[in-house]
Specification:
- By secondary structure, this protein is α/β, with parallel strands linked by helices.
- It folds into 2 domains: 209 residues, Rossmann fold, CATH 3.40.50.2000; 164 residues, Rossmann fold.
- The protein contains 15 helices and 14 strands.
- Helix 3 packs across helix 4 and helix 4 crosses helix 6.
- It starts with a strand and ends in a 6-residue tail after the last helix.
- An 8-stranded mixed β-sheet has the order 3-4-2-1-5-6-7-8, with helices on both faces. Strands 11-10-9-12-13-14 form a 6-stranded parallel β-sheet, with helices on both faces.
- Keywords: Glycosyltransferase, Transferase.
- It is an enzyme of class 2 (transferase).
Length: 400
């Protein structure tokens, strides 16, 4: 099967410091897994650096870059005006010798370009949003900073695709509220690299205190503020916050400074440690060093951090929403608490840190759950079956 994966941002092949993470990792791993299954996979991305080659062979699939928009990293809001041009570029690429059997758009801007490119063809479109503006607005409120055009354009995109891929059950519900029939929504969670994330291996240095680890960007909505407030109820333990800029830049980082001031005011400054950005290929050592990983973002569709922690055999305490609620089985692989309930968060962390046998059992169950349900091989297999289904729907039946 010929598969075209479309991302309007710079994609998985863009050189960055360390391995690709998040949406970029998702596209790269799906492309490589599908190629390994014998499919002819092309990834289309925006060329945001003139020094990058226009085409590239990578891990069994082909990357093609469109010289669309500014030749520099560009905010999403500014990419919207280039969607039509990107769609025309894709349509031109697909009018030659190589035409995809199915197109899979990633993120809403990539999906809009993909849908425009195939609108005069019978090529089916699959769409993964990775996050939804309306859901982010609901959970983040005033902290939501997405472009104003995003929500109406995402609604329009749901009417132009054959199947929308959700990464968690909350997203399935949201997509149906946006007007999609339930039969037009498929739930395919993201995978975890279990060769990188596993219980055996080195752990980051630590002292004798219990360690709670929080991983995420230092920006509004990631929940570090809730954790700092909860530490008053936890007792003698350290909270390590990984994410944001490199550690040598934290002094001048606005959010890092605000979190440190909050820790001072709440009397837990000696228990809170910000370590800055950690390369993704070193994250497993940090997960293994923790007694508990706390996942408290106000919005999370994929639950990547909870899955990586579980793959390393570490129990998770998280807010019961989005991908975290799907990944963490309450009282089996960790504990779920109501989103925003700082008291419940602190009490739950304290009790779990005091329960050595419970953490051991949760950690073992967490590894089993990831290896059974959240590998990239399983994700690619589910997408492969989905592609076959939509291609079968669109392909005309030959006359007898």
């Amino acid at each position: 099967m010929r598969v075209g994966l479309v991302c309007a941002h710079s994609g998985p092949s863009r050189p960055i410091d360390g391995p690709v993470v998040g949406t970029r990792e998702h596209i790269a791993r799906v492309a490589a897994e599908l190629a390994g299954r014998g499919h002819d996979v092309h990834v289309y991305e925006r060329r945001d650096d003139p020094a990058l080659p226009a085409t590239l062979e990578l891990d069994g699939y082909r990357v093609e870059r469109a010289a669309i928009g500014p030749a520099a990293p560009t905010p999403t809001a500014e990419l919207v005006s280039h969607v039509a041009e990107f769609g025309r570029w894709l349509a031109d690429r697909w009018s030659g010798e190589w035409t995809p059997d199915v197109v899979h758009g990633h993120y809403w801007v990539g999906g809009l370009a993909a849908a425009q490119a195939v609108r005069e063809t019978d090529i089916p479109v699959v769409q993964t949003f990775h996050s939804l503006g309306v859901e982010q607005l609901r959970h983040l409120g005033p902290q939501y900073d997405g472009p104003g055009t995003r929500i109406p354009l995402e609604r329009a995109l749901t009417r132009a695709v054959d199947i929308a891929v959700a990464q968690c059950n909350d997203e399935v519900d949201e997509l149906t509220r946006m007007g999609l029939q339930r039969t037009s929504v498929a739930m395919v969670p993201a995978g975890v690299d279990t060769e990188q994330f596993h219980p055996d291996g080195e752990a980051a240095p630590r002292d004798q205190r219990h360690r709670i680890l929080s991983v995420g960007g230092l920006s509004a909505g990631h929940g570090q503020e809730d954790l700092i407030r909860a530490m008053r109820l936890v007792g003698d333990a350290e909270l390590v916050i990984a994410g944001g800029p490199p550690v040598d830049q934290l002094t001048h980082h606005v959010e890092a400074r605000r979190l440190r001031e909050l820790a001072e005011r709440t009397g837990v400054a000696d228990q809170v440690k910000l370590v800055g950005a950690v390369p993704h290929d070193q994250m497993a050592t940090w997960y293994r060093s923790a007694d508990v990983v706390a996942c408290t973002p106000h919005y999370s569709s994929a639950g990547r951090v909870s899955l990586e922690a579980m793959a390393c055999g570490v129990p998770v305490v998280g807010y019961g929403m989005g991908g975290i609620a799907d990944a963490v089985v309450d009282e089996v692989t960790g504990k779920l608490v109501p989103p925003g309930d700082v008291r419940a968060l602190g009490v739950t962390l304290r009790r779990l840190l005091a329960d050595n046998a419970g953490r051991f059992a949760y950690g073992h169950a967490a590894v089993d759950r990831v290896r059974c349900s959240y590998t990239w091989e399983r994700t690619a297999g589910a997408l492969e079956r989905l592609y076959e289904r939509v291609v079968g729907r669109r392909r005309p039946v030959e006359a007898a």
